[in-house]
Specification:
Chain lengths: 111, 135
């Protein structure tokens, strides 16, 4: 009979704090620590990824986007020696002195 | 507007300029097709403006192909000279223009120009050799 009461008391003790053998509860997290771990660290990871993405795109400089427009000065690759005079005369009806162009062909496209 | 305008002179990065210049060089060396690429506004009638630009190539104009891209009005004009037209018909020029518009729609200006120039070089037929030394 006394052994049964001892068992019951032991059982009551075990269910009171619910700890296994060798388990030692820590002091618990303060509010600041909880915020740092569950909000601060994810925000930091987020910021690092954002910085990596933004740095790679800003290093390439501004890029052309369809529909936004174009403000840049004209560029002519493999053009004539004095491109500025030709580009400046664009839009004005110029006499087509060389017949090379008109008799050729080509293509037009829009996007 | 939210999107920074492309400042003057910074239309292409140095690497993009290298890419375009390399494709022009490949077209010149492998297909013997001089290609000139103009990126800028085509005032007024874009076709006649592009033809003016092509005529400005001078003595090389007959052999040359001019690719004029106007990003503001979203137009491409490909002008072939008389000799270049023999090697590059309008269908091939249209295919190259299609290659470029596909890339331009995605915002890839330099890549579209490079691949378009390479497409022109690929479609340029070699001129028939005249065997004048044979009977």
């Amino acid at each position: 009979m006394p052994s049964v009461t001892a068992l019951g008391a032991l059982h009551a003790l075990g269910s009171a704090n619910n700890y296994d053998d060798g388990q030692q509860p820590g002091p618990g997290l303060s509010l600041l620590q909880t915020l740092l771990i569950y909000v601060g660290i994810p925000a930091l990871v987020f910021a690092v990824i954002w910085v990596l993405v933004a740095a790679s795109s800003s290093s390439r400089g501004p890029r052309y986007r369809p529909g936004v427009g174009w403000w840049s000065a004209p560029v002519w690759f493999n053009g004539p020696a004095e491109p500025d005079a030709v580009v400046g005369a664009l839009g004005r009806p110029a006499p087509d002195s060389s017949g090379n162009t008109v008799r050729g062909g080509g293509a037009s496209a829009r996007w | 507007m939210g999107v920074a305008p492309v400042p003057a002179g910074d239309a292409f990065t140095a690497r993009q300029q290298d890419d375009v210049a390399r494709s022009i060089r490949i077209a010149g060396q492998q297909a013997h097709l001089p290609v000139s690429v103009y990126v800028g506004a085509l005032e007024g009638d874009s076709r006649s403006s592009a033809q003016q630009l092509h005529a400005a190539l001078g003595a090389e104009a007959a052999r040359s192909v001019l690719v004029a891209v106007d990003p503001a009005s979203r137009r491409i004009e490909i002008v072939t000279g008389t000799e270049a037209h023999r090697r590059l018909d309008d269908r091939a020029a249209g295919l190259a223009a299609l290659t470029m518009t596909t890339a331009f729609q995605a915002g890839d200006l330099a890549g579209g120009i490079s691949s378009g120039v390479l497409a022109l070089a690929e479609h340029a037929r070699t001129p028939p050799s005249l065997h004048t030394d044979q009977p």
